[in-house]
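Memo to structure team: turn this sequence into structure tokens by end of day. - J.P.
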Amino acid sequence: MNELQLINKCGVFYADSRQVAEMISKRHTDLLRDIDRYISVLSQNAKLRSDDFFAKSSYKAGTGKDYPCYLITKKGCHMIANKMTGDKGILFTAEYVTRFDEMERTLKNNMPVSAEELFLQSAKLFAEHGREIKALKSVAAAQNSRIGDMEKKVQLVYDCTSITHDNWRTHVRPLINQIAKYIPVLDNADRFSATWQESYRRLEREFNCNLTLRVNNKRERLRLAGATKKVIDKVNNLDIIGEDKRLIECYISILKRMVLEYKRAA
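Reply from structure team:
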């Protein structure tokens, strides 16, 4: 039995009635007569269309004359096979079922993507790209944040180098506020107060002094000198530090070390 050759017309596959007749060992004219009879029966049912089974066609013989033939769909082959018995019917059925299935799979694999499938694929790609863009934005934001932190740390170091005996009080408060952003504290603690207290504790430990005692002594001297309560209450640790050049130098040194310490840790 020769391999059945199918004809593709606009995505619909047909077998030529001449080859079908050869495969089932029937004269072509007899097969055409059978098909005409099948079409006549099908036309009696309004729900059935003979074109779904058989399509009229023609071929040109060697003499140049046109002769009728039919293009037979998979359904038409079913109908022809159902009328057959014996080995030839079995072989024909196996052949046309195999060939039609092969061609339909090939067509399906090569079909252009439908609008719906294209939309779903595009949506999937957009979603994937959206996640990639979001990840890139997150990385960029993190990098910008790190750059911003580095700029602040550089500024801290610059502020430290610019402190002198003459301007130290002008620089100390902004510097403390900046260090407070990096100093480790408990969740509910006041970072700024914690930074001030840490700088004073280090000064007292290194210089072996008691700032609280010195503040109280100065307030007492002012009281005895007749100073107002407002003036007395305003005395603080920075006033005590400012009265002693050695304290100023030690305090500036402590602040510089705190900057470098928390800059590295952050």
